Amino acid sequence: EMQRSLVGSEMCIRDRSFTATDNAGNTSDLKTDTDHVIIVDTIAPTREVSYAAPKTELDGKKYFDGDVELTFTVTETNFYEEDFAVRVSKNGGAKERVYPTWEKSAEADNVFIGKYTLTGDGDYVVSAEYKDRSSNQMQEYQSDVLVIDTINPVIEFSYNEAKQETTIIVTEHNFRPEDIVATVTATDVNGNEVSSNDLNAELHSDKWTHDGDTHTFTTANYVNGIYTIKFDYVDLAKRTGTVSYTHLRAHETTLH
Fold first, then answer.
1. d(CA 214, CA 66)
2. What single DSSP character describes residue 231?
3. CB–CB of 116/102 below 8 Å?
4. Neighbouring C-beta atoms of residue 53, cutoff 10 Å
5. Residue 201: DSSP 8-state
């Protein structure tokens, strides 16, 4: 005879008891094996992976302005945390195994919660795989690219009056020309407003040059006038940079 306990469609066979009867009808004493547990497990582990909402999602990348804490929620009766393999790739490098901190859920005996935090600027891809001791395979997990950006963009502005030429330099890892905005005020020598060329249209073009995280734009396309220009940049992690320049004088030698 056997004592059985059922958990879903997992069956645990615990105390195995046996008697033997020979051909003469003699029956042995009841023998019970209490030292071993046989587990029949036909249910694959399931998982959920969660983290805080990103500041921006774009083209399969999610942008964050600080550390990203991942929470792995695994449903599995016979869970062994050492078998749950989490690996992290940073900036396209090799995957390296990391070890979440685990605890059993207070709400269910077969739910386990692991936490791991990504720290430091970079582009991360997280994967996870698990097979239980009955060889039931969990569906493998792989994240989108999780981008941590904790550095504010830096904008530098210079004006060469002899050449009537301005240079804008933006230092930003996740640079996009469309993320810089110029606010321009132009007046004549009497203080009357004059119409200026569309600097934003130029800035949002492909006229930038790039060297790693340094991006440079040069223009001499100003109508005659006295300028106040403010540049604002908001990156994909919603970090900001700004710079202003006043009393920029463009005169008749300006290129058009």
1. 22
2. E
3. no
4. 7
5. H
